[in-house]
Design brief:
Elements (H helix, E strand, L loop, with lengths): L2 E10 L2 E11 L4 E5 L6 H9 L4 E8 L2 E2 L5 H7 L1 E4 L11 H6 L12 H7 L2 H4 L10 H13 L5 E5 L7 H18 L2 E5 L3 H7 L2 E6 L2 E6 L7 H8 L2
Parallel strand pairs: 3-8, 3-9, 6-7, 7-8
Antiparallel strand pairs: 1-2, 1-4, 4-5, 9-10
Length: about 230
């Protein structure tokens, strides 16, 4: 397994949100974490990235125990994170944001050409303040910033949030290309059913801080299944 999570418990302060989650992800897989709002999806991905502490259990990445490693340390190992809300620095230029990508993986300098190969618009916007870009362009910048490093796995948290449908479709295409062309492993927390069905190899369903089911994306085409797990 590239990423192995075993009996993980995590949360905020003394409040436990994640309860005994165990899951293994193989290299090159695209895994969607789905479920209703408030069931712990974002908390799980933050715990994997190291933004939240592990109360108990373990996280192993390429046979290295990273349970107590800082978020920066995990990034240097090649774990990229695109947070909910994009997390770009709005008062910095596109160029300055891309430069921060060198903290991911073994990159010593940001590989802007790699980011431009997926998002050509970024090359045209280098001197522009990131905060003046549209929501879709900011999401492209957030992903491009990670690609400017050398990630081996990317954790996405709600990449479709606040994005117009045509850009969501483009992001889905990019996610598939990242796996097919770059060999990256992807974990994506998402609510958009169309995006989930278009990219995921399989879905892990969360409820009350636990993984309760593993289903295929095609099963979400059944309204009863979607209603049961997503309440839509």
């Amino acid at each position: 397994m590239q990423l192995q999570i075993s009996d993980l418990r995590s949360g905020y302060g003394t409040v436990r949100i994640i309860n005994d989650v165990s899951v293994g992800i193989k290299p090159g897989e695209i895994v969607a974490v789905i479920g209703r709002n408030g069931v712990g999806k974002t908390t799980l991905i933050k715990a994997i990235m190291g933004a939240l502490p592990c109360m108990s259990g373990s996280i192993t990445y390429r046979d290295n125990d990273i349970t107590n490693l800082s978020a920066a340390g995990r990034a240097r190992l090649g774990i990229g994170y695109v947070p909910q809300g994009r997390g770009i620095f709005t008062r910095m230029t596109v160029a300055a944001n891309l430069t921060l990508g060198s903290g991911v993986g073994s990159a010593v300098a940001p590989d802007w050409k790699r980011a431009f190969s997926f998002f050509p618009i970024l090359e045209k916007r280098l001197p522009q303040l990131a905060g003046s870009m549209s929501g879709g362009e900011q999401q492209q910048l957030a992903i491009g910033r990670i690609l400017a490093g050398r990630p081996e796995i990317i954790l996405f948290d709600e990449p479709s949030e606040g994005i117009q449908p045509n850009i969501v479709q483009e992001i889905g295409t990019i996610i598939r290309r990242l796996r097919d062309e770059e060999g990256l492993t992807i974990m994506i927390v998402e609510q958009n059913l169309q995006l989930i069905r278009s990219v995921a190899d399989y879905c892990l369903v969360m409820d009350k801080g636990q993984i309760i089911a593993r289903i295929s994306p095609g099963e979400l085409e059944d309204p009863e299944v979607a209603q049961r797990y997503l309440a839509i």
